[in-house]
Design goal:
single chain, D-Maltodextrin-Binding Protein, domain 2, 7-stranded mixed sheet, two-stranded parallel sheet, globular
Length: 338
């Protein structure tokens, strides 16, 4: 009786263990199916950091060029949004106006009126402009927007590179990011310290709140304090390039600008663009992001603008395939190279 009972108990135990394994397997299969189903619906969403409290605009486009054809907005000169922007985006604004309004390049030059970066931001904040094409906002410009209770929407429209310039008489071909930072902090003062001639480095800067100076502070220095060098501060993008191109002691000069302006708008045969960390700035290295100081030109508008606002209609077309093709035709680096 005892043997028979133990035998039955052993059978019963084996059946219980077998059933438990089956339920565990079924449970694991169900969990796997549920997780798989959830995963298929969860898409990665990247939100742009364009809050007025942030000193940095988003580095990556928050809107990709439209995959389908977007019809050109039916603007007239009277209904065209009020445009402003930086010096380097004047040709962009003119090309867009010429295409959309069906006017000649000369007519577009007379129609489009740009100030420089900081005044353009102020005009947008004060309601004197609907949309501006600029570099990312400085801390002061963001503070001005916040004080006016205006929230800015900052959207990349074309890629750009922040480049460094020397005279063609300078033997230097490349600098590292650290060397550039040390030069502009006043730690490196002679070209021989970076492989050049035994000459003092004259490192030019732009005026505060200019687009170039904001890029220098945010993209290159990243919180490091620039040396206070008032004698070397130059007003205007052309002025700085002229100093590099025509400076009497030309081997000493160093400056910076944006790629499009130095390459297309104000090119001088006595200046050269140097590599940074061994990467030469060109269309390919900038569009791919391989060049270390890659940024964008942004369309900036008020976040409160309605979906049907003229500013949003214009922006949607610029981000379309046709709009990006026009940007590239005008000499700018599109967000995505086809």
């Amino acid at each position: 009786m005892y043997v028979y009972s133990m035998y039955n108990k052993q059978i019963l135990l084996k059946e219980v263990l077998f059933m438990r394994k089956k339920y565990i397997i079924l449970l694991l299969l169900c969990i796997s199916l549920v997780l798989s189903s959830c995963g298929s619906d969860n898409k990665k969403v990247s939100l742009p950091n364009n809050s007025p409290s942030s000193p940095r605009a988003t580095e990556e486009p928050s809107q990709k060029p439209e995959p389908v054809k977007v019809e050109k907005p039916g603007f007239t000169r009277e209904t065209y949004p009020k445009i402003d922007g930086s010096t380097a985006t004047i040709p962009l604004s003119e090309a867009i106006a010429s295409e959309i309004l069906g006017i000649t390049a000369d007519e577009a030059k007379n129609f489009i009126k740009h100030n420089t970066t900081d005044p353009a931001y102020m005009n947008l904040i004060q309601g004197k402009a609907d949309i501006i094409f600029v570099t990312e906002p400085s801390a002061e410009e963001l503070a001005a927007a916040k004080a006016a209770n205006v929230e800015l929407e900052v959207i990349p429209v074309v890629r750009e590179g922040f480049i460094f310039l020397v005279n063609t008489n300078n033997s230097i071909k490349s600098l590292t990011t650290k060397q550039i930072q040390d030069i502009y902090q006043g730690k490196i003062k002679n070209w021989k310290e970076v492989g050049g001639a035994d000459k003092e480095i004259v490192a030019y800067q732009r005026e505060a709140n200019s687009g170039s100076q904001t890029l220098m502070e945010q993209t290159v220095m990243k919180g490091l304090k620039l040396e206070d060098a008032p004698k070397n501060v130059v007003m205007g993008m052309a002025g700085l390039i002229d100093r590099i191109a025509e400076y009497d002691n030309s081997e000493s000069a160093l400056g910076y600008s944006v790629y499009y302006y130095a390459k297309t708008m104000y090119n001088k045969d006595t200046i050269k663009l140097i590599a940074v960390d061994g990467i030469t700035p060109d269309d390919k290295s900038i569009s791919s992001g391989k060049y270390p100081f890659t940024s964008s030109y942004y369309a900036v508008l008020k976040k409160s603008d309605a979906p049907g606002a003229a500013s949003r209609k214009l922006l949607k077309w610029i981000l379309s395939n046709d709009g990006q093709a026009l940007c590239q035709k005008s000499g700018y680096v599109p967000l995505e190279v086809k």
